Amino acid sequence: MTFHEKFRQYDLGEGHPFRGDRYVNAMRFFESQGLFNLSEIVLVEPQPASKEDLLRVHDEGYVDLIFRLAEESKPYDIETPVSPEILEAALLIVGGAVECGKAVYEGKVKRAVSLGGGYHHAGRNYGGGFCLFNDVAVLVEYLRTIYDVKRILILDYDVHFGNGTSNIYYRDPHVLYISLHQDPRTIYPGTGFAWQIGEHEGEGYNVNVPLPPGTSDSTYLYALNEVFVPLAEEFKPEIIIANGGSDPHFADMLGNLRLTVKGFFGLSRVIRETADKVCDGKFVLMPGSGYNPSVLPPCWYALVAGVVGLEDISVKDPYNPPEEPPQCRKMVENTIKELKRLLKKEWVCFR
Ligand SMILES: [Zn+2]
C-alpha cells in the first residue's frame, strides 16, 4: 500500500468536499482495525511521478499549464483549485500508482493499493471534477511501456462515470474499460451511457453500466457478476486495475447509490477472486473518492480488506441504509439486457 503524509496537501479548500484529512483518517481507521498487524500489508512511501510518467498520457501543453497554475496558485476550474501544495500531493499520488505497478510486476506482491488514487475525470488535455492528472492511465501506460503489458482491464466503480479514462481509451482494444456508475442523467459528468461502447478498433471495449439512484448492494453485485466477471473471463487481462472510493455509499453527499460497507467488501472480493481466476491475482486497487468523512474510512477499509482476502469484517455502517426502491432491480436488468445486445458482436459471453 502506498501512502505519504503529504497526501493531505490534496485539500481543495475550506468548505470543499475534497478534504486533505481523508488519507490520514483512513490510515488511523485501518490501524484501529489492526490492518497493519497483517503480514500481507507493506507500507511504501511513493516518489513523486516524473514528467515522463505524465507525458505518456497527457499533452505537454496541458502539463505545463497545470505547473504554471500551481506556481500562481490559480484554479483550473471553479471546483478544481491548484497550488504548489496540491501539485506536490498530486504528483505523489500518481507516483503511488506507478509504485504499485512496479511492485506487482517485479513480483514483490500480487495485489497493491494506491491509497487516494483514481483521478478518472482528467483526460489527455483537460482536468476537472477535482482531478488534475489521470493516475489510472499513467499506471496503464507505465505498465505498457516498462513491462510490455498487452491487455489491461480497468474496473471503475466510482459513483461518477470516469469520463477522462474512458475518453483516453475509447479507441483502444487493448484496454477494456468497464464502469458501474450512477445514471449520468442524474449526476456529474453527465455522460457514461450504455450506448457509448467505444469506437473504431476500440468498439466494444468501453462498457458503461449506468445504475438508477437508489441501487443497493444486491443489485450492484448482480450487475458486477453479469457484466464484469464474464467480460474479464473472456478478455483475459494480464492485470486488473480498479478505481473508486466511498462515494457510492448510501450516506455520501455527492452520490445517490446505496451501497453499504458490506457491499464495498463484497465488491472488492469479487474483483480479487476474478483476478485470481483470470490474471494470476494481479490487481491494483485505487480508492480515492468519498465525501462523507464518517463513512469514508470504513468503506476504504472494507475495500482494502477485500484485497487482502479477509473472510469477514466487523465494520458497520453509521446507521441502517434506506431500502432499494422497488423499480431499481428491473431497471438494471433491462440496462444489462440492452448492454448485452449492444456488445454481443464483440463478446461471445453476451450472445
Ligand atoms: Zn466520484
Q: What are its keywords?
A:
351 residues; alpha/beta; Arginase, Chain A; 9% strand; binds zinc ion
Architecture per CATH nomenclature, i.e. the level-2 architecture: 3-Layer(aba) Sandwich
Low-confidence parts lasting 5 or more residues at pLDDT below 50? Answer: none
What percent strand?
5-15%
Number of helices: 10
Q: Helix and strand string, N-terminal first?
A: HHHHEHEHEEHEHEHH
The total tally of domains equals: 1
Q: Could you say which overall geometry the principal axes of the C-alpha atoms support?
A: globular
The helix/strand class is: alpha/beta
The total beta strand count reads: 6
User: What is the averaged pLDDT score?
Assistant: 97
Sheet having the most strands: 6 strands, parallel
CATH topology title = Arginase, Chain A
Superfamily at the CATH H level? Histone deacetylase domain
* Largest sheet: spatial strand order: 1-6-5-2-3-4
Radius of gyration, taken over Cα atoms and rounded to an integer in Å: 18 Å
Give the termini separation.
39 Å
Provide the CATH top-level class. Alpha Beta
Bound molecules: zinc ion
- Give the helix proportion (percent range): 25-40%
